Amino acid sequence: MTDTPSPSSSGTRVSTKAAEAKAQRAARQAAALRANLRRRKQQARTRQEQEADEQEPLTATTTETGENPTCP
């Protein structure tokens, strides 16, 4: 085998070194996109939890005097 450049899909010739660099760049981009997706999903989960906490009804366990409420 020789180290001759191989043609790319666009018809231009790309050296082996350039092809490796392109593959590494694509791998880094894929990893960054996965990390970004994980971060966005975590943010969405946190927002949902906060909204759920805000919507929970408050139950009165004690009155203003500190006593437990009783049924009439």
TrEMBL record:
Biased composition (Low complexity): 24-35, 57-72
Biased composition (Polar residues): 1-15
Location of the region described as Disordered in the Swiss-Prot/TrEMBL record: 1-72
Protein name: Uncharacterized protein
